[in-house]
## 1
Amino acid sequence: MTGLKRVVGQLGMVCLLVWSLAVHAVEWPQQIAADEGTIVVYQPQPEKLAGNLLTGRAAMSLELKNQDEPVFGAFWFSAKLDVNASTGKAIVRDMKVTQVTWPDSTDANESRFTQVVEAALPQAGFVIDTAALSASLKGAELERKSLSNLKNDAPAILFRDHLAVLLMYDGEPRFSDVDNSDYQRALNTPFAVARKKNSQAYYLSSGQFWYSASDPLGPWTLTGNPPADLQKMMPAQEADEQAANGQPPEIVTVTQPSELVVTDGKPEWKSLPGGDLLYVVNTETPWLRDVAGGSMYVLLSGRWFKAAKQDGPWSFVRADELPDSFAQIPPDSDIGGVRTSVAGTPEADDAVTDAYIPETAAIKRSEATLEVTYDGAPEFKSIPGTQVAYAVNTGAQVLKIDNHYYAVDNGVWFESDAAKGPWAVADSIPDDKIQQIPPSSPVYNTTYVHVYESTPEVVYVGYTPGYMWSFPYYGVPVYGTGWYYPPYWGNYYYPRPPTWGFHVGYNPWTGWNFGVSWSNGFFSFGASWNAGWHGPYRPWGCCNGWYGGGYHRPPVVINTGNINIGNSVNIGNRAVINNRIGKNPQLVNRNKSVYHRPENRARNAKPAVARNQLKMARPAPQRANNVFADRNGNVARRVDDNWQVRDKGQWSANHPAASERLSSPEVKQRASDFKQSHPDYQRPDIDRQQINNYRNNRSPSNFDRSGLNRDFQSRQRGMQRSMPRGGGFHGGGGGRFQR
């Protein structure tokens, strides 16, 4: 027993070490060696992000070998980003210095100092947390894409007050023979549905429960005596103790886009602090009621729908047009996680900014291969309003443009002179024509995959979350385009990406997760069964998920009894995080990058090595990350609530924060006098002229306080997001559902 304890203890120490390395936030400032000393670079302040090209500015100090005091300056730059969501880190490389200012130096030294910086920085690489990078982009210029053609019609929203599962068919049920058996299986559902040939006996299984019906649309009834030969055909399934001991769910069958909202008994409404909002405790679906307006709201695939009553009709509500009470939901409440879907909240701003950061990779030409299989001769369909056609009778995403062929596979563009190949990694693509593809097309997500640059050995590529069907929309992320894409039927069945039916919810750590209400393993089991049986089923080829929806096939055993309705609809993932990963957000991210999934890693080159041998910067010890550069080239540092500006080798006297300036006796008296002489003025609490005079009299005269305040807040937000969190997801626990 002592030996076992020793082994367990050693394993625990190893796990703790791995955890500490993985979650350790990147430290700023960072330093690099130069010919005349050390250059200390403070956290960059981005001004623009276009693809993988980042431009911005940063404060710095040059610590000369023969001088005690550092020389502070600011520089503007452009640089390339290599982003890996699986680690939560990005490398800033190929930095080009475009401008330098030195508030500390004399004219005679400026040229020499600038040469030192311009020579050293392009050879260096800097590491930054993607969360910190995202937060710092809040005030930057981003490539925004019009999403006016997203479809926001409500799906059929169904309610049950007892355990139930949504059995979804993609249209009317269709069956195909299972090789070497007397059975057929349903092709157009992720569930395990089979029938005996030449009979009306249908069976459905989750691995623990069996159901039977005389019609594939039900009604389905529990059976304890399924055919023995059918049971033997089922793949091995881990036992779900809670499912086995619990009540079997009702099977709710649909053939059109639908969502199922399930409660444990009648809905139990609970008031949030302030009493303006109520929410249902005993459900996995965010379901709220605005007390003042009387309408109820549900959150599905990142979209809000409202109705006067449960039976509907339900209508779409933009996230920036919700009642004001939604923005007042406490972050640490049971439903704090829904703030990500409320425009204007910090959580929503974070999620939207994340959507503009590309996931990148350097792809080795020699290792990246593609084979495309068609159901017969390649068949292409023109996309209205474009010069693009797409292949309909394949699970791959193949485009035809100007009699040339392009295909996207796991975030990489390939090209060929023929529809069947051979395929090679593309150096470039006709992006202007590809960008014409509208959301109504099932290949719309390819417009979010890009080719950045190439060498004879490597092609640099990237994608933004739109490739994974996640879009920033009126201040929040939404999932799916809302369009229904009919599948292809021939000798094979190719489903297309859906928006509805999978109970999709957003989590700031894992992105979009999906479940099938309290599924008892139905989905994961059905998917594995379909994948294991031979036959004409061919899943959509996009992103290694059933239907190719851009989400990963999860360890979906959602029947854990732990409901967190605000933070994740996929309670199965939440349970895994709490029990196995604990406070390690980096391990949660392990499958977020398409490029770094196990099956894709062999084709990846190391970007820094493939590009050049970067001299990686390292943390600069005993220096606070509180120095900034404003847009005018001034260098300032934040001390408590005050700004100190660097001028002629010294930090200036404190400049109080805006709140302190406005509360000063001088400003208050001026505002009072102004109010008496201008009784019709609508904002008598602020004397604009007094504030302008105050700003104009400070030194340096062009100090951009408002811009630096924003950058400071963004840096603080980034530090918060980069730190590990305890207790599962941000937002606290949800209700407890026991069966």
## 2
Amino acid sequence: MKKKFRFQWGAFLMFLVYGGLFFLLFGRILFIQATGQAEGKVMATLAESKYARESVLKADRGTIVDRNGELIASDTLSYRLIAVLSKDASKGSKKPLHITDIEKTAEVLAEYLPLEKDAIVSRLTNVKAETYQVEFGKAGRDINHETVMAIKKQKLPGLLFIEDQTRYYPNGVFASYLIGFAMKEEDSERNVTTVGKMGLEKTYNKELNGTDGKVDFKSDGFGFMLPKAEEAIVAAKDGYEIQLTLDKTIQNFMEDAMNRVESEYSPKKILAVVADPKTGKILAMSQRPAFHPSTREGLTENWLNQAVETTIEPGSTTKMFTVAAAIEEKKWVPTDFFKSGQYTLYDRTIRDHNITGWGYISFLEGFQRSSNVSMAYLLERMGDKTYIEYLRKFGFGEKTGIDLPNEAPGRILDTYPIERLTTAFGQGSTVTLMQMMQAATAIANDGVMMKPYVIDKITDPNTGKIIKDQKPEEQGRPVSAKTAKEVRELLASTVTSKYGTGKKFALNGYTVGGKTGTAEIPNPSGNGYLAGHGNYLYSFLGMAPAEDPQLLTYVIVQQPKLKAGEIGSDPVSKLFTSIMDNSLRYMNIVPSGEDIVEPTVISDYTGKDSADAIVKLQEDGFVPEIIGEGGEIDIQYPYAGTKLVEGSVVLLHTKGVTALPDFTGWSKKMVLSYKMLSGLDLRLNGDGYVTEQSLSKGSVIGLEEPVVIKLQSPSEIYKPVEEDTEEEDVVGG
């Protein structure tokens, strides 16, 4: 008996629905495989965007170092503080991961951050209900490691410290208007970068800024790297290293001297520059007021490097170039006489600082006394227009071309005869300190004028390639070597002569040649010049040793508060003598009266027995110091081929435990070399030469045990020069 067939409409409908879906899905898969696209987008791109991850490799901003490689500015590790407020952060955790006690947290943070407790409480409470975390702005950035550890010891929940970088200036107030500063800035896309805002940090911002790298990798939905996934690494490129011509030790001598003079006299302005006249290298440069580049404390509305970007009327320091021109033109006869006191040109009369004059005196005495009238008669002899031509040969009236921005050109006034006359003794026309330094190199360097510069070289630390290597550059020969030598002798006589205005600038053991200046200051109201005791710009442009100058120094003090009986040259001489004496001794320039020791070339002792090396070094007049227990020498310092004078220390590194030497009298550089070779924890306090050490000679210590080494500058070690000469304030003197 046949069963009657019954059509199942329900099953048929399910077949149609699911069969249709199957064929639709099957067709979709075929389409995607054939075209590689879905919803108009490439599937590979969608997968990449879902699973690709990118990690940024931060580049370090380039370092700035002195000519010996000592650090001036660099990036260093710092931390950024974040306070977690949301309770959601603690879900699933056995201990709280958000702030639970706002009062206590604020009280602790107020001890370590530059914020009051109430301000911190306000920051943590005046937020929207859904706020997850807050930061503390500038106060919560650039936190050092010690502060982070101190806060963590309090075990406060909800505080996170994110690793960051900050610009580090280890020397504090140190050539701040030259170096400038860099700080973090946030762009429109909320990317935070370090940007140079002033000085070299701004000028060379592009060179100092590195390029961030990145790591690309595939990850799962939770962000973990997938097995066998390939990493694509683009290495970060750190910024270039800029090596300056500055010498950190000489710069510190300058900063210390400026601090003392500023504290004692409270002048409106102090400027100082030290240069090597043989090369034009600027060894030190600073000004007051100054500021700390890390905190910007002391920074005023003035952002100018005044040695380069502003001009002054130089006063009588200009007279060295007037006399140089007269000598070159064969119009200088030091034994000829003139009537001092005053000189009239048409309807204008110029006067000496001693209005009645000194009667008839020789031109030599007139120069030593800084007579303005003597310059007027010299202009008569050589012609005032000829003199202006010499000023231009000396580089006045145009930029020196120093590798710093916004250099001012100065201005030579030569339209009228009276302008040419006043220019001869430093009034009316304007100059920059750099122009004066450049011109003076011709006097110090036998007639060869050298271009000043501050960048020694720029190096790419990623490749070791030298990007820029500055060499000394001649700027002309305005006078002959014979003339330059004669001018130096005249300059020395201003210090040694009984009539000289520069007697206070004498050094103990070194001959000094230089010229004082007391320039009038234009009245801000535009009406004439300021007047009154101390209301002048006092200066000294000097070189030493006078017979063969190794250093050229120019110092300026404006409107110091002088005590009763003091004159303008007092604060200037305290600056100049301190900087010059310390620097010459630091450079091992032999004082006059001492025998000049010819240097000896040191031999190569590596691989030799230390006992034999000690005997040979002592025979050559050196002082050998063993690092280790003795035996075969694997490293020596200074290296073979170096020229050393008698009494120089030679370090010989061997294997074994090291016993401490007597560091007394060692230079900072040699102590640092010993520290590097020995690996000992030597902690230096001060600059100059070693006077004390915390552990005695022969002590055997481990690498982790610190040894404190105290150093003092020569000015602290040697007695200062007695100054008992009295002068009167002299305009142009």
## 3
Amino acid sequence: MLLEAVYHRPKLNWCYAYDGRTIHLRIRTKRNDVTAVSALAGDKYIWDQSKAYVPMTIMVSDELFDYWECEIVPEYRRLKYGFLLESGKEKYWMTEYDFLKQPPENPDRLFEYPFINPTDVFKTPAWVKDAVFYQIFPERFANGDPENDPKGTQPWGGAPERDNFFGGDLQGVIDHIDHLTNLGVNAIYFTPIFTATTNHKYDTEDYMHIDPQFGDIDTLKKLVKICHDRGIRVLLDAVFNHSGRTFAPFVDLQKNGENSRYKDWFYIREYPIAVKDGIPTYDTFAFEPLMPKLNTDNPEVKEYLLKAAAYWIEEADIDGWRLDVANEVDHEFWREFRRVVKKAKPDAYILGEIWHESSPWLMGDQFDAVMNYPFTNAVLDFFVDGTRDARSFANALSKQLANYPRQVNEVAFNLLDSHDTARLLTKCEGNKDKMKLAAQFQFTYSGTPCIYYGDEIGMTGGHDPDCRKCMEWDTSKQDLELFSFYQELIALRLKYSALRTGKITFLSAEAGSGSLVYTREDEENLFIILMNNSETPAEISASVQVNRLENVQTEETVNLKDGKLAAKLPAYGCVMYRAIQ
């Protein structure tokens, strides 16, 4: 037994309260090294009467490790615990201090979860578990009110450029809300809608006003009300890392320099502020002079931004915030942000834009979730670029699942493209079957999926600005078959809770192969999903614990012999089965 590979700590994703009564324990061992793990657990004040061994099961495995998990509901909301590791006849008891060859005589040196204090339990919004998001770039979705078009607005459908305008607005979204309802989505994420100079609005001029080219607060209220009436939640984009160059405090700073009362709202390295050899003398987003970085440690800055965060929830009834460049803002600001937002709306969704492992922000005191780019990268590597095989893909996602508590994984924001990337169909080089296979995995995986506007009708586009084309509203130019595919996929996910919050298990993911078999399971249903991520047909098989299945797509019943499941799949084919009695 390789004890050097064994890891646990009594916090974070390794030991946490899933709800007000339940504690999840996890421990890591070398892959295929340990044959059984049990948690030795009980109440420290009545240890001898309460101690018991709780079997643990392998939650997931990656290329190096097995991650074991168990669920315990302690009678008195506190837990003292250690682990028993077994490999054949070899046994070790793991305490907080040592590995022992005999059971610990008393609990003093075991691990401890002191008490499940309700205020410490990381609660994520329940509705997000059932959400299917649709991302809208407002300037390019639909022009519903030509009266508010900015000067120089171009005819709808022209070539997108970094600085041109087509007149998209909030009224356009209202006018086309039936499209979203018919598609079946129940949440919208809008990129920024507040006053700014650019078409993308990430250079905020005024956090308290809707950009006039999009409408006004009454338009937003009307849109949110219409969405809520149809069961659609609304998420807005908050750009709190930086402002725009036309933000009034920065205008004052440009005018008055060191004498500006707003000089401490920003990070100035040198006066007068200028751009030297392409590098501003003040901190910015990247090196973009139009986007000066805000000093969120400044009390006035903090007060202004937190006021905006609460205002749009209280005034327009929005359902949460997506936070731009979230990892470059200080943690204490986000802690205060969470308190303000959750006070205004307890089930508001707080979503951070972070492209990497994000545990420091996902401890229950800051964000509910992050944009799940590790998921995005793994899916694109496997299904689109072919740089991962099935084994590597399953390992990457398993590692990702093990990184976070279950409640975080349940509300992770799973996207395959966005305004920041090339479109999915373009990444697939126009191969619609490949695109569909990636989407089928996205919609049958843990977390909330998001569709980038227009993907559902076959829109294409390379990197910015090409990915920000005008939405195609001419039905003769829409891929209606693809639209129906997304409709069915969304309906299937919303129908079965197992596809949203059920346990995921990779049954078969072989090295050097594109064949993937995995399950989603909860108390109500078990789904077995087979995928052929290959340009040639393949027969895929797996051993399962059931003998009767229903093909979800065809409703055909399949009877198995000795739990042996096999299916012949076309190139980039997928079949989903549901176990039946």
